[in-house]
Structures are given as C-alpha cells and as structure tokens.
Amino acid sequence: MDSRMQQYLSDPxxxxxxxxxRKAGPLKSAQIDITHVCNLRxxxxxxxxxxxxxxxxxxQESDFDAFVEREKARGTNYMTVVGGEPSLMLDRLKKIxxxxxxxxxxxxxxxxxxxxxxxxxxAVSVWGDHETDTNLRGQGRLDVFARGLANYKDDRRVxxxxxxxxxxxxxxxxxxxxxxxxGNYVSFNFYGDISQASGAVDHRRGFGEVCREIDRMxxxxxxxxxxxxxxxxSVATGELYGDRWGHEVCCxxxxxxxxxxxxxxxxxxxxxxxxAYNPDLQTTRRCCAGxxxxxxxxxxxxxxxxxxxxxxxxxxxxKQEFTNWLTTMFLFYLSNRVVDxxxxxxxxxxxxxxxxxxxxxxxxxxPTLLTETATIGDLVIExx
Length: 384
Ligand SMILES: C[S@@+](CC[C@H](N)C(=O)[O-])C[C@H]1O[C@@H](n2cnc3c(N)ncnc32)[C@H](O)[C@@H]1O
Ligand code: SF4
Ligand code: SF4
Description:
Layout: H1 3-8, H2 12-24, E1 29-33, H3 46-49, H4 61-74, E2 78-82, H5 90-99, E3 101-106, E4 122-126, H6 130-137, H7 144-151, E5 158-164, H8 172-181, E6 185-190, H9 208-220, H10 229-237, E7 239-240, E8 243-244, E9 276-277, E10 284-285, H11 301-310, H12 319-335, H13 341-345, H14 348-354
Parallel strand pairs: 1-2, 1-9, 2-3, 3-4, 4-5, 5-6
Antiparallel strand pairs: 7-8, 9-10
Helix pairs in contact: 2-12, 4-5, 9-10, 10-11
Bound molecules: S-adenosylmethionine (SAM) and iron/sulfur cluster (2 copies).
One iron/sulfur cluster is lined by residues 38, 40-42, 45, 47-48, 83-85, 107, 137.
C-alpha cells in the first residue's frame, strides 16, 4: 500500500470506512434500461431526446433471463436500473434484485412494493417543488412529487434523486424538508437543458448557488443528505485535478463501443467493465447518459462519482484530499447498500463534518496535480 495512504489510514474513522469497502469487495458495474416504456414525458429527458425507446425491450421472458445469465457470466455484480420507467416492470426488476447489487431510478408514480424488495435502494426522481415538478414532469397536470411522497411515506429504502435547476435554487430547502419529513433520504443531481428551454432550467447559469444551497442542506440535515460537498463541487465546477469534465475523461463508457475506442487509449482512467445497455438488452450506447449526448450539457451525478473514484491516485496529496476520495467511495457503496446501510448511514454526520473545510468561505487551495504514480494497494477499483 502507498505509504501516504497508510499514514492517512492511521485515523480510525478513515480506516473503518476503508475496511468496510474492502470487506464488501470490488464492483463490476453495468447499466440497463429495463424498459423502453414510460408513463411520463419530462421536459428534456435524455432518454426520449435521443429516441432511445426505439430499442424495444425483449418480449420473451426467456430472452430477459438469458441476458441476466450473460451478465452474471461476464462478471457483473452491480447494475444501475433505469429506462423508461422501471416500476412498470416489477417482475424483471425482481430478477435483477435477486441476482445483483443494484440501484433503481424511478419517477415515483407507482410504488415498488416492500415485499420482495426489502433492501432495494430506490432513487426517486424529483425536479423541483410541486409547481415546478408538475410543469417539468407532469405536463402541467400531474403533481409527480406529491405522488412520490405518498407512495414512499416513511420508506427508508428511498433516497430522492433531486435534479436541481439553477433558477429554482430557492425551492431546494422546501423540497429537501418535505423529503426528510416524509422519512426518506436525499441525494442530488443537476439538470442538463437538452431541449434548450433556457430560463430557470438553463444549466449555462451555472450550479454555484445550487452547490451552496446543497451545503446548507448538509448542515441542516447531515444524517439525511447522501451527497457530499466534494461530489457536488466536482459536478458544478466540472474540474478534477486540472482535467475538464467530458468524454475524454469520463469513466462510465461502454468499454467495447466503437465510439469510445479513441478515448479509451488516451491514458485517462475508465471503468474497464462498464456497458450501458439499451432497452433491447442487445445493443449498447456510448455512455450512461446517451449515445450522441453533448457532454457540455451533462452533469450526471453518478458518472461524477465514478470519475472521482477512478482517480484515486490523484487524491493522495494530503489527508483532506484522501478523505474527499474515500468518502466518495464509501458513499457509493452505502447508497447502493453494498455495505450495511443502517450502521453506515449513521456515519453521515461525521463524513460531512470531515468535509466541512470545503464548505467554509475561505476554501482550501485548489488540489495539487500529482504526477507521481502511486500504488493503489490491493483495493481493486478499476472496474467500479
Ligand atoms: C431517464 S430517467 C429513467 C428512470 C425514471 N423514469 C426516472 O425518471 O427516474 C433516469 C434519470 O435521468 C434523469 N434525467 C433525465 N433527463 C435529464 C436531464 N436532461 N438532466 C438531468 N437528469 C435527467 C431523471 O431525472 C432520472 O433521475
Ligand atoms: S419519467 Fe424518467 S424516463 Fe420518463 S420521461 Fe421522465 S425522466 Fe424520462
Ligand atoms: S455525456 Fe456525460 S456520461 Fe456521456 S460521455 Fe459525455 S460526460 Fe460522459
């Protein structure tokens, strides 16, 4: 193990986080659209923006079962399940649940039952407070947020996946409070204005204020916010140790897709196992966020987790930088319930406390770019 890492791990709290990750073991991940069908048409949804619903989900159950077996044989042990709307395909979701670690992302309009899905990490999407969410997601008629709250009252499987928009920062506190009072957890995502609606949802306004508001939510509800200041900042700035967010550094790319051939040779780390499957479960697309997606409108939070995690060596310059990295890694395992959730989530206040220097007005100097190659030890993270 790298001597600097060894030194940082003499801190019992960091050693505990690291030990939990080691105990859980490495993840080999893939993403699937479990269906091409959706009961909503949210404004600027990347899935419909690229007509990804033209790849129809297999009709035969045996074809779906064969896919599950192929992925198991390939070594996949973790799946991000999206679509389309996964809650319309409960039987298939159950098969994924029974065979892999997973997270399912849902619009919340149909409840995923407790029975049979007791430890399922459910990310329920919301894009703003009731009026905003109704306009952006419910076509001005359906209060999607209210439906989700009712469906998942006091359901500890749920972490809301709150896609924030720069012009609606003032709604963040109200949305978070309602989610917390509903008995759930909260994570954040950042809206990409693919349909160029501009105004309040225009990502070109930047996410600086959104980040500051997320920081305030962390101070208010440290035990309930499942995103760190560090991750939020990496999304908002699009910077990591001198690298600029985009395809050339992105890590959640389908490894054997022709569109990525050049990128995967540029020396930047990437997830060596990852594939993003279209709903037909035969074809794949370039990356988790689309096939022809313009990277300048992509602020995909899960993809940023991978970016940080796979750039572990660059985070060894100081104990704070290592803490930034290790808490990102731990939060990924925790949110996906790869480590024990109930005991792990109790560590959130301390995790946020360790990242408090990032939230103070006199922010620390920009991280140093490390050129030295460090040994990662035997913690296998290449394939996360
Ligand atoms: C395509 S949806 C599929 C799952 C499910 N139908 C849902 O809405 O949660 C996957 C995730 O992408 C997010 N999403 C879709 N379009 C987006 C965009 N333009 N910017 C940011 N997030 C977006 C949704 O909010 C959701 O969290
Ligand atoms: S519910 Fe999900 S898949 Fe359906 S349109 Fe909205 S974001 Fe897209
Ligand atoms: S669109 Fe996003 S996820 Fe896809 S390659 Fe670009 S940066 Fe990565």
